[in-house]
């Protein structure tokens, strides 16, 4: 009987764990992630141009390849063979290293993103988890690596020996500080509910219905944290757009103000590496949002009714589909919303997102603490979220006090640039030209 049991195939694949893979499996995973991100970048560039063209009643790329799919590859080859110019007066080492510093962290962040469950590698007897590695603090690892990429933008702007590039780099550093804080605070509530900072454990926590046992109008809310922690989800989505310097928050490369910002003095492959980092960072924050708020690689309803939806390689399809929804949201915003002013952008981060995040954390922590001691209906969490949203909307509904126009400065008095609350240039003084003086003489 024992021999028969040993001869039977395994009903479920053994959990190979993370970190126990052979060296060739690790190398294969690294290669697949690298190729996936490069191909995804080429596809996203084509997709963005096609979608925005459709929104603006244009055709978009349609010549190179079927439906213009090879247009991004043609643009990349053009940049590769384009003459590489280096302006005078730049710091050559930092100028060359900046694109590399910006692009390498973009690839490293995908090391802890789970794409699926444990599967069997085809044509072998090896089982492995569809994740390169996992850490007890995987989410903090992603935040730390993403913060390193900003150094490439700042150093690129500083080393270019250009005023526009320097201003674009400084804007990036201020933008990162503002929205990294809001993004980190939005993830605290996820840690409170999941009880872990591991990406794979957060995905597993969202598959359980116990942690989200609440009903709204007699309809069960799905197990994704995007529903239970909706304010955190909204704050994260806004912060991830500001973090990746995308429209309407693309102030570091505002072409109407700074030519191209930190990219002004770059060309050829250095220019392409900055754009590669931008599009991979879009995929990174979208993958992290999918993992933390949309159940990761687990199938959505009603596909989840199928027993085999969350086994084999099918979860990779669900994961990529959710991630592409976020990238479409990026493209949609770029095609519809105008760019914010810099003071509006900073006000949104420091005066709205961060205070709301702190209040939401206190509310969620209170619900979790009270829920452990007494029998507590988590519908109060929705009530608290509604109250928090009401408090946020009250200042927007109330009429704002109009700022008085600064009075004209009398002749002989010093001009106060900050009289109206923000710096303005001094008024022009009408002075007679040389031709008028000559005519008077």
TrEMBL record:
<feature type="transmembrane region" description="Helical">
    <location>
        <begin position="271"/>
        <end position="293"/>
    </location>
</feature>
<feature type="region of interest" description="Disordered">
    <location>
        <begin position="415"/>
        <end position="441"/>
    </location>
</feature>
<keyword id="KW-0830">Ubiquinone</keyword>
<feature type="transmembrane region" description="Helical">
    <location>
        <begin position="26"/>
        <end position="47"/>
    </location>
</feature>
<comment type="subunit">
    <text>NDH-1 is composed of 14 different subunits. Subunits NuoA, H, J, K, L, M, N constitute the membrane sector of the complex.</text>
</comment>
<keyword id="KW-1133">Transmembrane helix</keyword>
<feature type="transmembrane region" description="Helical">
    <location>
        <begin position="379"/>
        <end position="398"/>
    </location>
</feature>
<feature type="transmembrane region" description="Helical">
    <location>
        <begin position="135"/>
        <end position="158"/>
    </location>
</feature>
<dbReference type="Pfam" id="PF00146">
    <property type="entry name" value="NADHdh"/>
</dbReference>
<feature type="transmembrane region" description="Helical">
    <location>
        <begin position="93"/>
        <end position="115"/>
    </location>
</feature>
<keyword id="KW-1278">Translocase</keyword>
<feature type="transmembrane region" description="Helical">
    <location>
        <begin position="345"/>
        <end position="367"/>
    </location>
</feature>
<keyword id="KW-0812">Transmembrane</keyword>
<comment type="function">
    <text>NDH-1 shuttles electrons from NADH, via FMN and iron-sulfur (Fe-S) centers, to quinones in the respiratory chain. The immediate electron acceptor for the enzyme in this species is believed to be ubiquinone. Couples the redox reaction to proton translocation (for every two electrons transferred, four hydrogen ions are translocated across the cytoplasmic membrane), and thus conserves the redox energy in a proton gradient. This subunit may bind ubiquinone.</text>
</comment>
<dbReference type="InterPro" id="IPR001694">
    <property type="entry name" value="NADH_UbQ_OxRdtase_su1/FPO"/>
</dbReference>
<feature type="transmembrane region" description="Helical">
    <location>
        <begin position="313"/>
        <end position="333"/>
    </location>
</feature>
<keyword id="KW-0874">Quinone</keyword>
<keyword id="KW-0520">NAD</keyword>
<feature type="transmembrane region" description="Helical">
    <location>
        <begin position="224"/>
        <end position="242"/>
    </location>
</feature>
<comment type="similarity">
    <text>Belongs to the complex I subunit 1 family.</text>
</comment>
<feature type="transmembrane region" description="Helical">
    <location>
        <begin position="179"/>
        <end position="204"/>
    </location>
</feature>
<dbReference type="InterPro" id="IPR018086">
    <property type="entry name" value="NADH_UbQ_OxRdtase_su1_CS"/>
</dbReference>
<protein>
    <recommendedName>
        <fullName>NADH-quinone oxidoreductase subunit H</fullName>
        <ecNumber>7.1.1.-</ecNumber>
    </recommendedName>
</protein>
<keyword id="KW-1003">Cell membrane</keyword>
<keyword id="KW-0472">Membrane</keyword>
């Amino acid at each position: 009987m024992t021999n028969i049991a040993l001869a039977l195939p395994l009903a479920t694949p053994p959990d190979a764990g993370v970190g126990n893979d052979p060296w060739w499996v690790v190398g294969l995973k690294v290669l697949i992630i690298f190729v996936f991100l490069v191909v995804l970048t080429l596809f996203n560039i084509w997709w963005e141009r096609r979608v925005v063209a459709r929104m603006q009643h244009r055709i978009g790329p349609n010549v190179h390849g079927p439906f213009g799919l090879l247009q991004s590859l043609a643009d990349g080859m053009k940049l590769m063979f384009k003459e590489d110019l280096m302006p005078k007066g730049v710091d050559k080492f930092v100028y060359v290293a900046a694109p590399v510093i910006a692009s390498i962290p973009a690839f490293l962040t995908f090391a802890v993103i789970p794409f699926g469950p444990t599967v069997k590698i085809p044509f072998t007897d090896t089982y492995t988890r569809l994740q390169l590695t996992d850490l007890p603090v995987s989410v903090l690892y992603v935040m730390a690596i993403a913060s390193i990429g900003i150094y490439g933008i700042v150093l690129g702007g500083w080393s270019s020996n250009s005023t526009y590039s320097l201003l674009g780099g400084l804007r990036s550093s201020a933008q990162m500080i503002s929205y990294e804080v809001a993004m980190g605070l939005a993830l605290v509530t996820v840690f409170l509910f999941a009880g872990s900072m591991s990406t794979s454990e957060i995905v597993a926590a969202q598959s359980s219905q116990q942690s989200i046992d609440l009903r709204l109008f007699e309809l069960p809310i799905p197990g994704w944290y995007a529903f239970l922690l909706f304010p955190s989800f909204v704050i994260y989505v806004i912060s991830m757009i500001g973090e990746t310097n995308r429209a309407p928050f693309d102030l570091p490369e505002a072409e109407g103000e700074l030519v191209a910002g930190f990219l002004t003095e770059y060309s050829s492959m250095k220019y392409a590496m900055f754009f590669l980092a931008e599009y991979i960072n879009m995929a990174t924050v979208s993958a992290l949002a999918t993992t933390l708020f949309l159940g990761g690689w687990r199938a959505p309803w009603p596909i989840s009714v199928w027993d085999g939806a969350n086994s084999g390689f099918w979860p990779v399809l669900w994961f990529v589909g959710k991630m592409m929804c976020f990238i479409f949201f990026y493209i949609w915003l770029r095609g519809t919303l105008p760019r914010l002013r810099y003071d509006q952008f900073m006000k949104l981060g420091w005066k709205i997102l961060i205070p709301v995040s702190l209040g939401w954390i206190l509310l969620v922590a209170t619900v979790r603490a009270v829920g452990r001691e007494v029998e507590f209906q988590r519908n109060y969490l929705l009530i608290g979220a509604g109250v928090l949203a009401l408090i946020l909307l009250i200042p927007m509904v109330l009429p704002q006090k109009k700022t008085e126009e600064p009075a004209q400065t009398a002749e002989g008095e010093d001009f106060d640039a900050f009289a109206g609350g923000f710096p303005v240039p001094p008024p022009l003084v009408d002075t007679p030209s040389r031709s008028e003086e000559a005519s008077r003489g």
